[in-house]
Amino acid sequence: MYCPKCLNETLFIKPKGVIDIYINGKKRDNGRFLYNIEESEKEQLIADFKLKCEEFFKWYSQFNNQDPIEYVELLTVDVKCENSCKFSPLERFSAVDIIVKRSLIEEILKELGEKYKMRIALKV
To answer: 124 falls in which pLDDT band (50, 70, 90)?
Structure first.
């Protein structure tokens, strides 16, 4: 990945960490999950992601004026640069297609949208 400090392709996501889920720019206090990218942990990672999305959908489905789900971000601070660049705790990096594939995110959102009768209109 591209490092915004040294401007090289030296940034990588750590093998273990935390991901915050933002849907339409909204994040719940419990909208985060631990990840471990070891192959043996992949199924648990997907189950945790799906559970957090479902918690959001349950909460958001109770709103009177719902906007369609357009944006989903998976952000993490658990990155490291090979050149030892330092990042502030406020800097977050996308884990889409690195930790959770975009196609899987779309599939889970479509399924939850049908279940909770919510419109999904993802924008790229």
So the answer is: low
